[in-house]
Write a structure and sequence with these properties.
Blueprint lengths: L12 H7 L3 H9 L3 E6 L2 E7 L1 H7 L5 E2 L6 H6 L11 H17 L2 H18 L4 E2 H17 L3 H4 L2 H12 L6 H24 L7 H6 L11 H31 L10 H14 L5 E6 L3 E3 L2 E3 L4 E5 H5 L43 H17 E4 L21 E7 L1
Helix pairs in contact: 6-7, 6-15, 7-9, 7-12, 9-10, 9-12, 10-12, 12-15, 13-15
The structure holds protoporphyrin IX containing FE.
Protoporphyrin IX containing FE (HEM) binds next to helix 5, helix 12 and helix 15.
Length: 406
């Protein structure tokens, strides 16, 4: 058992805020190790980059996500009582709801068709657009309709913006984060009312499914539990707008690349490479619920462990020239390989791997199709992401002008 190297800083919280996505990679390189100890927010943490860390977070027994995220990020993202905070039978039972809806069901086709139609009509009616704002707003409209929410809520621009802010503001604590938390509480209250009303109706829509969902012992989910899971469908669909902004940035930087994307399979592998290349979900964290050994590491009970998703996706030991955007890598969300982990890895039914990958890839590919079907010009702008900001986006948001029907 090798001693785990230690980051010499007494507390690395400020370095994490400064270095953002690069925080774990920088130290792994400096220490010549895929694992190191540090202190963050005065708490002992073990950080890992590469497949060993990904396998720990997506497969090892004896871990929980409870207590692993700072409270603001937890409340803006998954929230208490959600699938992501559960383990064991309760987790597998709740997860089934998501995999049935998002992987087994027609969600990817339905959502990507609806998004392509809505976003295309929006862009065709405008002179210019900032892609991250425009695509996220369109995705919010489409997600609300797909979920079965009433048109009044779908047309509420403030509600749609709240869905965007939940993931946009989760990365740090500022006054804007606090405001987003308040807005999230308001959104949850509205969704609780929708769940209560849907209890009398059918289980056909995602809202209906959640209103009729049960715990493993047959008890129905209460209004608050169902509303939290409804947000777990709506919020991340809207967050795909960030990937769409990165996809548009690649097309804007290299307009000739559009010629190779006429075929749906080419748009799919383009979308997969967008997921690998773009800085989005930086790290995932867990806490050990008992002492455990994992691939040569001895971890005590209560140990905070953090796996570096972005660093694993950009590790030159694992990827050929990872800084290059190359759809020819032909990546596929269906793989269980721990190195391709933009939304987690491993077995989706029994680990915390994201159930939304199929939907995400279909939505990015649909966005590419929309962008290729319209005429536009990308003026000079800074398309590079600021890696100290979590979540990152192209600095300009990807601005397109002179939008027109081709
Ligand atoms: C926008 C692109 C997305 C990214 C970057 C992303 C990323 C992630 C990551 C990294 C996890 C694992 C968290 C952990 O291990 O603790 C996760 C879990 C989850 N994601 Fe996504 N996701 C995205 C899209 C989606 C979509 C479209 C949906 C649903 C419509 C979704 C629903 C969920 C849910 C419910 C979980 C919790 C799963 C569990 O705990 O078992 N995500 N996501």
């Amino acid at each position: 058992m090798r001693e785990i190297p230690r980051d010499p800083s007494p507390d690395a919280t400020l370095a994490l805020l400064r270095e953002g996505y690069r925080f774990i990679s920088n130290r792994c390189e400096r220490l010549g190790s895929d694992v190191f100890r540090t202190r963050l927010m005065l708490r002992s943490a073990i950080c890992l980059r590469g497949p060993r860390g990904v396998r720990l977070l997506y497969g090892a027994e004896g871990l929980t996500r409870q207590g692993a995220l700072p409270p603001t990020a937890l409340h803006l993202l998954q929230d208490k009582g959600s699938v992501q905070q559960m383990e064991g039978t309760a987790h597998h039972h709740r997860k089934r709801l998501f995999t049935d809806l998002l992987i087994e069901g027609p969600a990817a086709v339905d959502l990507s068709r609806a998004f392509a139609a809505d976003w295309r009509a929006t862009l065709a009616g405008e002179d210019e657009a900032i892609v991250i704002d425009s695509a996220s707003d369109s995705l919010a409209r489409v997600a609300c309709r797909w979920a079965g929410l009433p048109e009044g809520l779908t047309q509420d621009a403030r509600f749609r913006r709240t869905l965007f802010l939940m993931s946009a503001k989760a990365g740090r604590f500022t006054p804007a984060t606090a405001a987003s938390l308040l807005r999230r509480r308001g959104a949850e209250a509205r969704l609780r009312r929708e769940v209560a009303e849907a209890r009398g109706g059918s289980a056909e829509t995602p809202l209906g499914r959640l209103a009729h969902a049960t715990h493993p012992d047959g008890r129905p989910l209460d209004d608050a539990e169902a509303a939290v899971e409804l947000l777990n469908l709506l919020r991340p669909i809207v967050a795909v707008g960030r990937y769409v902004a990165f996809a548009a940035a690649h097309l804007a930087a290299d307009p000739a690349s559009g010629a190779s994307l006429a075929d749906p399979e080419a748009r799919r592998t383009f979308a997969e490479e967008v997921r690998r290349h773009s800085p989005f979900f930086p790290f995932v964290a867990g806490v050990t619920t008992r002492a455990l050994s994992h691939e040569g590491l001895d971890l005590p009970k209560g140990q905070w462990v953090i796996a570096d998703l972005w660093g694993t996706l950009h590790d030159a030991a694992l990827w050929d020239r990872p800084q290059l955007f190359r759809p020819s890598r032909a990546l596929d969300w269906r793989t269980a390989e721990p190195v391709f982990c933009p939304q987690g890895a491993g077995d989706v039914g029994t680990t915390h791997r994201c159930p939304g990958e199929k939907v995400t890839v279909a939505l990015i590919a649909a966005a590419v199709e929309v962008l290729l079907s319209l005429g536009w010009h990308a003026p000079p702008q800074d398309l590079s992401p600021d890696l100290s900001r979590i979540p990152a986006a192209p600095r300009s948001g990807t601005r397109l002008v002179r939008l027109h029907e081709d």
